[in-house]
Amino acid sequence: MDTLTLFLELFWNFFLIGAFTIGGGYAMLSLIQGEVVTAHHWISESTFTDIVAISQMTPGPIGINTATYVGYDVLFQATGSHFLGIAGSATATLALVIPSFILVLLIVRFYTQFKSSVLFEGVMSWLRPTVVGLIGAAAVILIVDTTWIQGSPVFTIVRENFPDWKSWCLLGAAFAASYWGKVNPIYVIVAAAVLGLLIY
User: Is the pTM of this model over 0.85?
Assistant: First the structure.
């Protein structure tokens, strides 16, 4: 595939993700993974998980950060050029943001007219649980790999993301600290980074 075609495919795929994702960055992750890992095989599952982890730690919305890192990685791996990698970052990020920018402009213009509408409330009541489902799907995608054998799904744990029992302990500790301990996510991320350096 030539570089121009790769740029166009990258732009088109992230434009569609930006246009059809409801619920923010976490809801985008399952769509991004489906396109860049499963459909196009631009990056591996383990690389995508690393990108999500880095995107979570760096400032800014996780969906946009992920698009930026993916865009760079895809073009750099294809061409070996840092300059084209940066251009890939800009392409994926811009493509992801454009639909939201246009929609927000339209919503701001018409929101005050429709916010008390029964139809509007009905649509929102259906969208809220859908958003929760998309965020949950993003978490499952990072843990479980699905392959189809003779028309039946076979679920396996992604070994690159959970290589040993220590990684499962880190997962459990992070969940417990966030859910029951109500620990600030920043502290959880810093503690996980320090423990990862000490353990691995």
Answer: no
What are φ and ψ of residue 40, in 5° steps?
-105, -15
Pull the structure tokens for residue 81: 């050029």
Domain limits, the chain: 3-144, 165-199
DSSP class per residue in 95-136: HHHHHHHHHHHHHHHHHHHHTT-HHHHHHHHHHHHHHHHHHH
Q: How far apart are CA 91 and CA 74, in angstroms?
A: 11
Residue with tokens 């809220």: 128
Residues 155, 151: Cα–Cα separation, whole Å = 13
pLDDT in tens, 175-195: 899 889 888 888 988 898 898
Q: Which residues of the chain have pLDDT under 50?
A: none
